[in-house]
Amino acid sequence: MKKIEAIIRVSKFEDVKQALYGVDIQWFSYWDITGLGRSTEDQIVRGQVFQSSYIQRRMLSIVVRDQNAEKTIKAIMNAARTGEAGDGKIFVMDIENSYRIRNGEDGPESLYIK
Fold this sequence. Notes:
Layout: E1 2-9, H1 13-22, E2 29-45, E3 48-64, H2 66-80, E4 88-94
Antiparallel strand pairs: 1-3, 1-4, 2-3
Helix pairs in contact: 1-2
């Protein structure tokens, strides 16, 4: 099993979500994050534009069976890409095991509803 964490632009979230549904990803979690980098983004506050090094992004966390990792990564990359700096990052980690709390099922079978 693999855990895929993706940091993407907030504006690309809906595109990525639809792409994940398109490759049959049934569940994932996400949250808003703020990063600090060398690049800056224009922010609009009360009608005034200013540049900020604090960059708003969205992080997705997805655990998939090994055979689904590559198609999941490609779906995220294709949907999140703008070609501009700041499109994001994807990290892939091995997962030793998973458990379904409801019935004690473990392993890759515990990831999806049967």
